[in-house]
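Re: [ENG-882] Designed sequences occasionally contain unexpected residues at chain ends

Forwarding the minimal case from QA. Structure tokens:
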């Protein structure tokens, strides 16, 4: 009979004992199969046996325990070798939600042409959908092998507009972990079937369908702050606080022409500090814009690191993050060169937001 660990203390010692036993059995079996030459190299091969045996123990536990609680999954991610992809990256929010068992553990793996892609875990919060996945290949792959990277759909349909950012860590010549972060838009549902597709250079297509649901332990703080500066109308509607970080919703408008979307309002970013002047790390993301009645309209949800429980007030300072060069594309083929001289610095006023008391 299956035993559920929901609401009960996780049997840490039993799991560790099972893993230790698996390691011992793997070593004994390996020793029985080794030739004299292999026996001489035993000390060099032992770490590989440890990895294999622990991985086997982990797959047994996961394969027979679809009924376990998020706490159980979180505890597994903290055991040696059995780790979270999110915890390996320099995003405080991702590490925190992973440790708290708030991510969706997927573990679905597809292999094509000797290349295995595993969707490890997913986080859906107010500002991003973050997907952590692992690529394990029989041979070393070039950096550009996967082209533009992971793509996603919502209930089988392409999102109206989205931008994505990617981070990669090379574990070895043939193994790498990747996180893909997709911007969240206002019209996206709180839960849906997320289609994921990764295309390879040789025409491979790794396709997955995973359920995602927005985390619920979020504090919404109405802001409704407005200001005008140098022809830019800025509206900050709210900020959201969760274990994954701060999400700041804003809209900005500015008069312009249809053939040039590179107006000042399209470069707005925010700096946030707490009551002690400590800056909260921001994570630059994309946004969307459209032109209507001689006015450019931009909107985005900016993301920042989570704050500690002793933060009582936040000071928010808008500014323009003007690039030094580059350009953009209007439509399919019309390239728009960036002209910094056509834009000027804007001095926005800072404003403060009181932070509700958070429960630990």
């Amino acid at each position: 009979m299956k035993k559920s660990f929901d609401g009960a203390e996780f049997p840490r010692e039993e799991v560790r004992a099972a893993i230790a036993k698996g390691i011992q059995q793997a070593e004994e079996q390996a020793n029985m199969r080794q030739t004299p030459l292999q026996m001489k190299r035993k000390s060099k091969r032992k770490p590989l046996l440890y990895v294999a045996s622990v991985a086997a123990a982990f797959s047994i536990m996961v394969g027979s325990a679809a009924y376990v609680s998020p706490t159980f999954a979180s505890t597994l991610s903290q055991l040696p070798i059995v780790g979270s992809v999110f915890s390996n990256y320099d995003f405080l929010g991702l590490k925190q939600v992973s440790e708290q068992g708030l991510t969706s553990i997927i573990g679905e793996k597809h292999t094509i042409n000797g290349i295995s892609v595993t969707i490890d875990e997913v986080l859906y919060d107010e500002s991003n959908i973050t997907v952590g996945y692992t690529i394990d290949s029989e041979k070393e792959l070039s950096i550009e092998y996967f082209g533009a990277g992971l793509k996603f759909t919502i209930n089988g349909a392409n999102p109206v507009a989205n931008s994505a950012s990617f981070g990669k860590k090379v574990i070895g010549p043939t193994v790498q972990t990747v996180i893909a972060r997709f911007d969240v838009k206002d019209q996206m549902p709180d839960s849906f079937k997320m289609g994921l597709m990764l295309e390879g250079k040789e025409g491979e297509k790794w396709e997955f369908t995973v359920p995602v649901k927005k985390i619920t332990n979020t504090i919404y703080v109405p802001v409704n702050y407005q200001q005008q500066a140098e022809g830019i109308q800025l509206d900050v509607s709210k900020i959201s606080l969760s274990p994954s970080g701060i999400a700041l919703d804003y809209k900005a408008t500015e008069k312009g022409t249809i053939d040039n979307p590179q107006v000042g309002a399209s470069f707005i970013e925010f700096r946030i500090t707490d009551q002690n002047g400590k800056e909260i790390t921001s994570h630059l993301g994309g946004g969307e814009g459209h032109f209507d009645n001689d006015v450019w309209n931009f909107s985005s949800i900016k993301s920042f690191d989570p704050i500690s429980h002793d933060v009582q007030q936040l000071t928010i300072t808008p500014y323009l993050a003007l690039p030094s060069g580059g350009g953009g594309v209007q439509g399919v083929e019309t390239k728009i060169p960036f002209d910094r001289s056509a834009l000027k610095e804007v001095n926005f006023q800072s404003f403060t937001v009181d932070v509700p008391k958070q429960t630990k």
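QA comment: On inspection the terminal residues look reasonable. Residues 1-13, 15-20, 26-82, 328-333 have pLDDT under 50 and may be disordered. Proposing we downgrade this to a documentation issue.
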